[in-house]
Design goal:
single chain, 71 residues, mainly alpha, 2 domains, 85% helix, transmembrane, membrane, transmembrane helix
Protein backbone atom coordinates (compact mmCIF):
# COMPACT_ATOMS: atom_id res chain seq x y z
CA UNK A 1 0.00 0.00 0.00
CA UNK A 2 2.74 2.43 0.99
CA UNK A 3 4.81 1.42 -2.07
CA UNK A 4 1.83 2.09 -4.36
CA UNK A 5 1.21 5.46 -2.70
CA UNK A 6 4.85 6.52 -3.02
CA UNK A 7 4.89 5.29 -6.64
CA UNK A 8 1.66 7.06 -7.65
CA UNK A 9 1.94 10.30 -5.69
CA UNK A 10 4.72 12.69 -6.75
CA UNK A 11 6.89 14.30 -4.08
CA UNK A 12 5.40 17.77 -4.59
CA UNK A 13 1.81 16.57 -4.13
CA UNK A 14 2.86 14.55 -1.09
CA UNK A 15 4.57 17.64 0.32
CA UNK A 16 1.41 19.74 -0.21
CA UNK A 17 -0.68 17.05 1.51
CA UNK A 18 1.75 17.00 4.45
CA UNK A 19 1.67 20.82 4.71
CA UNK A 20 -2.16 20.89 4.58
CA UNK A 21 -2.38 18.18 7.25
CA UNK A 22 0.08 20.11 9.43
CA UNK A 23 -1.97 23.32 8.99
CA UNK A 24 -5.10 21.38 9.96
CA UNK A 25 -3.37 19.96 13.04
CA UNK A 26 -2.11 23.41 14.05
CA UNK A 27 -5.60 24.93 13.61
CA UNK A 28 -7.08 22.19 15.81
CA UNK A 29 -4.32 22.79 18.38
CA UNK A 30 -5.05 26.54 18.24
CA UNK A 31 -8.77 25.86 18.78
CA UNK A 32 -8.01 23.78 21.86
CA UNK A 33 -5.18 26.09 23.01
CA UNK A 34 -7.30 28.04 25.53
CA UNK A 35 -8.47 24.95 27.42
CA UNK A 36 -5.03 23.36 26.98
CA UNK A 37 -3.27 26.44 28.40
CA UNK A 38 -5.76 26.50 31.28
CA UNK A 39 -5.08 22.84 32.10
CA UNK A 40 -1.31 23.35 31.74
CA UNK A 41 -1.44 26.44 33.98
CA UNK A 42 -3.36 24.54 36.68
CA UNK A 43 -0.96 21.59 36.42
CA UNK A 44 2.04 23.93 36.54
CA UNK A 45 0.56 25.68 39.59
CA UNK A 46 0.13 22.34 41.38
CA UNK A 47 3.71 21.33 40.49
CA UNK A 48 5.06 24.69 41.73
CA UNK A 49 3.14 24.39 45.02
CA UNK A 50 4.33 20.79 45.48
CA UNK A 51 7.92 21.79 44.63
CA UNK A 52 7.85 24.72 47.06
CA UNK A 53 6.54 22.43 49.81
CA UNK A 54 9.34 19.96 49.06
CA UNK A 55 11.96 22.75 49.16
CA UNK A 56 10.59 24.06 52.47
CA UNK A 57 10.55 20.51 53.85
CA UNK A 58 14.16 19.93 52.70
CA UNK A 59 15.31 23.24 54.21
CA UNK A 60 13.52 22.33 57.44
CA UNK A 61 15.38 18.99 57.49
CA UNK A 62 18.67 20.71 56.63
CA UNK A 63 18.27 23.22 59.47
CA UNK A 64 18.01 20.28 61.89
CA UNK A 65 20.84 18.40 60.17
CA UNK A 66 24.23 19.09 61.76
CA UNK A 67 26.17 17.85 58.72
CA UNK A 68 24.77 20.66 56.56
CA UNK A 69 24.31 18.64 53.38
CA UNK A 70 23.11 20.93 50.58
CA UNK A 71 21.02 19.82 47.61
Amino acid sequence: MMVMMSACVPGAVLHVIIVISHIHVFSVIHMHMVSFMHHMFMLHLVIIIFHMRMVIHCKHLLSKNTLGVYF
